[in-house]
């Protein structure tokens, strides 16, 4: 079963008075491209997080976010009450001593003074990290389920388009014998018009006709095209991450369709080839989203 590279997963956990949120988003990309946005306390785990994402998600443009929901009461930076009280007493004492008015906006003045805010140094608790790892696993699992669901839609598109190309290929059969007869008749008519003016070696003419008609034969292209269509279906159904391979097979399908069109020499066959190309373009566009 194929997976899309597009997906989204989100999970949360609570540790102490903190609500921790993990979000993972994935879009299509030729390679694995991971970008992370991680709250300061957890940045030391950036490499570990990237390794986990690369192992589980394989390919795509991955945006990962790990942050603390600030709707809780947790605050790392706090007001240093002792320092502010000391500043207040000193300013009030100077005011009384020098006869200067005390400031009307005490907090604006006090909070601009040195050391009035204190930042607690917090180390990451190992138990907290274990909870975050579980939450990451849940978010990645949600993203994978999203990818699988999207993959089912892609698989439906591929089944329909490959089947339609195969059907169109069968529809070329009635025009093959007809076009050969038309080519022979046209050549013979043109040569007949020249027969009064030049001598024609009928044996040589027959050889040239056979050679020319063989150049227009499309049986090999039809066989190869049918094989490529089957190979596309087999790869889609049996390989785990077939996106790149399906892209290469689609290119080979395109080569055979183009050759079929150049050899068609028949307006009805060329119309069928145009319909094949339309289906193939839609396949190529969607293959870019396959993991």
Automatic annotation (TrEMBL):
It comes from the Bacteria. Residues 176-290 form the Endoribonuclease YicC-like C-terminal domain. GO terms for molecular function: hydrolase activity; RNA endonuclease activity. Its cofactor is a divalent metal cation. Residues 177-222 form a coiled coil. Residues 2-155 form the Endoribonuclease YicC-like N-terminal domain. InterPro entries: YicC-like_C, YicC-like_N, YicC/YloC-like. Keywords: Coiled coil, Endonuclease, Hydrolase, Nuclease. NCBIfam families: YicC/YloC family endoribonuclease (TIGR00255). Belongs to the YicC/YloC family. PANTHER family: UPF0701 PROTEIN YICC. This is YicC-like domain-containing protein. It comes from Paludibacter propionicigenes (strain DSM 17365 / JCM 13257 / WB4).
């Amino acid at each position: 079963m194929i997976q899309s590279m597009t997906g989204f997963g989100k999970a949360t956990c609570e540790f102490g008075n903190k609500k921790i949120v993990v979000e993972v988003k994935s879009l299509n990309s030729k390679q694995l491209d991971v970008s992370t946005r991680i709250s300061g306390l957890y940045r030391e785990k950036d490499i570990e997080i990237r390794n986990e994402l690369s192992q589980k998600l394989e390919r795509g443009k991955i945006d990962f976010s790990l942050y603390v929901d600030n709707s809780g009461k947790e605050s790392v930076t706090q007001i240093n009450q002792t320092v502010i009280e000391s500043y207040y007493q000193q300013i009030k004492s100077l005011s009384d001593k020098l006869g200067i008015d005390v400031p009307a906006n005490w907090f604006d003045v006090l909070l601009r003074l040195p050391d009035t805010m204190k930042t607690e140094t917090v180390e990451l608790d190992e138990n907290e990290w274990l909870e975050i790892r579980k939450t990451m696993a849940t978010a990645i699992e949600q993203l994978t389920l999203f990818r699988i669901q999207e993959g089912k839609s892609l698989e439906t598109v591929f089944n329909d388009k490959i089947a339609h190309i195969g059907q169109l290929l069968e529809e070329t059969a009635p025009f093959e014998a007809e076009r050969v007869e038309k080519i022979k008749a046209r050549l013979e008519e043109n040569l007949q018009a020249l027969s009064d003016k030049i001598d024609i070696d009928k044996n040589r003419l027959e050889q040239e006709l056979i050679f020319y008609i063989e150049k227009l034969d499309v049986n090999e292209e039809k066989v190869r095209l049918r094989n490529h269509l089957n190979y596309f279906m087999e790869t889609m159904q049996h390989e785990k991450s077939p996106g790149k391979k399906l892209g290469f097979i689609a290119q080979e399908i395109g080569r055979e369709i183009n050759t079929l069109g150049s050899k068609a020499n028949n307006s009805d066959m060329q119309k069928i080839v145009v319909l094949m190309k339309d289906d193939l373009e839609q396949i190529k566009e969607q293959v870019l989203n396959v993991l």
